[in-house]
């Protein structure tokens, strides 16, 4: 919002005063999509917030703004209801704030969606003796089932898939390992809190052999011959597990190329990781 | 919660009555991780909610519950502040509800994180004349830049990557296409709303040729010789774009295997899509 626009509005709004107090517009920043965002940080008295929000909404409607965003920190939870009464809906929340949104135009709402996916990893850690690192979990879907499975875990926000895989293997089994390749990935829907899920099966090369299992979540951990892992009745019976086991078997026979990684700069200068078939790219450059 | 546990608590709580009214515990379901979830749907008077929540929290503490979840629909936004005052934090929100959480034990909080990733796609649609489908966007990072780029878009919650790619190509350009392979993917961090991002570069085979561009977001769309696309100064200058362009070039020379797809049943009976190097898997089975 420019200073002159703000000035104009405050002048207009002084007509609406009812107790001699001037109603201040909320501080807002323009976004790149014709909308505005209000990041409230300081405490505001609920009635003052209600009046300022109402006046600001009139102002933004006159300015033909698209989306209006209000970010309220947890400590200002007393203002949530006021924004909802003014027509806002929830957009997303993190532990320390709630983001509310309101679409002003009469045409359909094109506000971007909330984060849609959880990301998980499964680690195929295989040593030179064709033994694979497996665990039994204490709780969750496999708790008490007796199934030996790959170490798995959730990729944190801000964490690279390759790093998450190394971290989970270390946390659950104490084994140090290095990332080799993404062998496959699975997309599923309606998981935790109704979100979709991407699960990456990653191959790692172990750098140590002595297991020190984590006690809270892991019932048991050991090295198991790959064929014994693959031949578990549970694995053979369930299409998805069998398919992933087959891919791992093929990989262990050296005939399968997954996606290896390489860092690359984005147009904004950030360094990101790209996963792709490095084997085929290298082969190409030798042709 | 069992009926007998509820009965015990109500008896205890009648001691706390102050105006002759019995304080009802909130209805809660057990989760698989030693916690409880309250899904409030009916309107509740704020003071009644505050009293019930306080009594319920005492009850759950005595039961040594772990996490307590409260899901509040948008229409009950007047109760948000009460839950926060009782020690709850936000967990996540969707347009029509807010999920609050509170961790009761003294040991560290192991509540699962909110969805962490946005998922996007870029569509490499190449025809038999080695022409690639490109667009210029009206707004966003490339608006007005003159750069010709692949159609891109966001994968919706609940949508398969392959379907999202076909949908975005159709929406932006009117071209019908079929999914071939994921050629590569990129993970980046601190994107929209601070979330991480997975961006899948997918190859598609066009099934039609006449472009009908979408007018709201797309400035222009056309078929462009692949070499001309790759040789754009912007593409050559930016590491990440150049790397993806090189992968697409290699793929067009038929030397590169990406991840194709196959459906598979999960252990819970859901059908999911697994993406993997189908070329190498087929080669293996022929060996």
UniProtKB/TrEMBL annotation, chains A, B:
Keywords: Hydrolase, Metal-binding. SUPFAM superfamilies: Nudix. The keyword Disulfide bond does not apply. Residues 116-248 form the Nudix hydrolase domain. GO terms for molecular function: ADP-ribose diphosphatase activity; metal ion binding; NAD binding; NADH pyrophosphatase activity. It comes from the Eukaryota. It holds the Pfam family NUDIX. The keyword ATP-binding does not apply. Belongs to the Nudix hydrolase family. This is Nudix hydrolase domain-containing protein. It comes from Kalanchoe fedtschenkoi.
């Amino acid at each position: 919002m420019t200073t002159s626009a703000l000035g104009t509005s405050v002048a207009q709004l002084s007509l609406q005063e009812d107790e001699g107090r001037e109603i201040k517009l909320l501080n807002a920043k323009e976004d790149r999509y014709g909308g505005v965002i209000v990041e409230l940080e300081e405490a505001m008295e609920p009635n003052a917030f209600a009046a300022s929000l109402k006046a600001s909404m009139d102002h933004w409607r006159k300015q033909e703004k698209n989306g209006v965003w209000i970010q309220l920190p947890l400590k200002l939870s007393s203002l949530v209801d006021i924004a909802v009464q003014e027509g806002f809906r929830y957009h997303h929340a993190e532990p320390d704030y709630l983001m509310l949104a309101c679409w002003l135009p009469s045409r359909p709402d094109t506000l971007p969606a909330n984060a849609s996916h959880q990301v998980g990893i499964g680690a195929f850690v295989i040593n030179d003796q064709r033994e694979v690192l497996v665990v039994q979990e204490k709780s969750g879907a496999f708790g008490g089932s007796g199934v030996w499975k790959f170490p798995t875990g959730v990729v944190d926000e801000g964490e690279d898939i390759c790093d998450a895989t190394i971290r989970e293997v270390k946390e659950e089994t104490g084994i140090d390992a290095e990332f080799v390749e993404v062998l496959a990935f699975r997309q599923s829907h309606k998981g935790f809190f109704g979100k979709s899920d991407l699960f990456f099966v990653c191959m790692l090369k172990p750098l140590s052999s002595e297991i020190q299992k984590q006690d809270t979540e892991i019932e048991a951990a050991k090295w198991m011959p790959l064929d014994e892992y693959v031949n578990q009745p549970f694995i053979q019976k369930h299409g998805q597990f069998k398919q992933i086991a087959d891919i791992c078997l093929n990989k262990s026979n050296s005939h399968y190329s997954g996606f290896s990684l390489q860092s690359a700069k984005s147009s904004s200068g950030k360094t990101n990781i790209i996963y792709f078939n490095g084997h085929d790219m290298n082969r190409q450059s030798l042709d």
